[in-house]
C-alpha cells in the first residue's frame, strides 16, 4: 500500500471537496501514479466523491475501497462504470484485510493520512506545494504526528523541485516532489 498526497506549506490538503490549488503538472503526476493496471484506491467518502467529479474515467482502477461510517451518505457514483468494484469499509481496522489485494493507493482524506502509524504504507509520495493556504476557506489539515512518524520511520529516496503555474491565481509555485520508503 502507498500513500499519495499534496500538502501546502501550512499542511492543508483541501476543504473536503476541493483542492486549494490547480496545478496541472501535480495533478498529472497523481493520475500517472494511481491510474495503472491492477491499481486499487483507498479513500474516505469525501475524497471518493471529489475524485469522481474530477476524474470520472479512472480506466485502470481495479477496485475502490471507501472508508465511511455511513454507506447511505455516498453521493451518486454513476461515473465509475469502468471500475470493476467499489467496496465500503466501516472501520480503519478493516484496512488490514485489503493490504494484499495488489497495488493499493491511499488517496486521502486526512482521516486516513493521519492514521499513518496504524496503516503503515510501504511508500509515501508527498508533494509540498509552497503556498500558504487560507485556513478559513480550506480547513482539512494533516496533523504534525503524520510528519513526525514519516520523518522518523521512512527514508527519503527521491526529491525533485519544480516551479509550476497555479491556475487558481496564475502565479508560479514551487512544488517539491518526494518519495519515502519504509
How does this model look, in words?
The chain is of the alpha/beta class and 182 residues long. The protein is built from five helices and ten strands, in the order E-E-H-E-H-E-E-E-H-H-E-E-H-E-E. The protein has helices spanning 24-34, 45-54, 110-113, 116-119, 144-153, and strands at residues 2-8, 12-14, 39-44, 61-67, 85-89, 103-106, 123-129, 140-141, 155-166, 171-181. The strands form two sheets. An eight-stranded mixed β-sheet has the order 5-4-3-6-1-7-10-9. A two-stranded antiparallel sheet has the order 2-8. Strand 9 (155-166) and strand 10 form a beta hairpin.
Q: Layout of helices and strands, plus pairs?
A:
Blueprint: E1 2-8, E2 12-14, H1 24-34, E3 39-44, H2 45-54, E4 61-67, E5 85-89, E6 103-106, H3 110-113, H4 116-119, E7 123-129, E8 140-141, H5 144-153, E9 155-166, E10 171-181
Parallel strand pairs: 1-6, 1-7, 3-4, 3-6, 4-5
Antiparallel strand pairs: 2-8, 7-10, 9-10
Strand order in the largest sheet: 5-4-3-6-1-7-10-9
The averaged pLDDT comes out at 86
* Class derived from helix and strand content: alpha/beta
Distance N terminus to C terminus? 11 Å
Q: Enumerate the spans where pLDDT stays under 50 for 5 or more consecutive residues.
A: 78-82
Global Rg? 16 Å
**What's the count of strands?**
10
What is the 3D shape?
A: globular
- The total of helices stands at 5
Work out the helicity level: 10-25%
Amino acid at each position: 500500500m502507498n500513500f499519495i498526497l499534496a500538502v501546502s506549506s501550512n499542511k492543508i490538503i483541501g476543504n473536503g471537496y476541493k483542492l486549494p490549488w490547480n496545478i496541472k503538472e501535480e495533478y498529472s503526476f497523481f493520475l500517472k501514479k494511481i491510474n495503472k493496471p491492477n491499481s486499487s484506491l483507498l479513500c474516505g467518502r469525501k475524497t471518493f466523491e471529489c475524485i469522481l467529479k474530477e476524474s470520472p474515467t479512472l480506466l485502470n482502477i481495479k477496485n475502490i475501497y471507501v472508508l465511511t461510517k455511513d454507506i447511505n451518505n455516498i453521493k451518486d457514483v454513476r461515473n465509475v462504470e469502468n471500475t470493476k468494484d467499489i467496496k465500503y469499509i466501516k472501520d480503519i481496522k478493516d484496512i488490514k484485510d485489503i493490504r494484499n489485494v495488489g497495488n493499493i493507493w491511499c488517496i486521502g482524506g486526512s482521516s486516513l493520512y493521519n492514521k499513518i502509524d496504524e496503516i503503515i504504507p510501504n511508500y509515501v509520495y508527498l508533494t509540498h506545494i509552497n503556498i500558504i493556504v487560507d485556513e478559513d476557506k480550506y480547513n482539512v489539515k494533516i496533523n504534525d504526528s503524520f510528519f513526525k512518524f514519516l520523518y522518523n520511520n521512512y527514508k527519503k529516496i527521491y526529491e525533485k523541485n519544480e516551479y509550476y503555474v497555479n491556475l487558481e491565481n496564475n502565479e508560479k509555485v514551487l512544488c517539491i516532489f518526494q518519495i519515502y520508503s519504509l
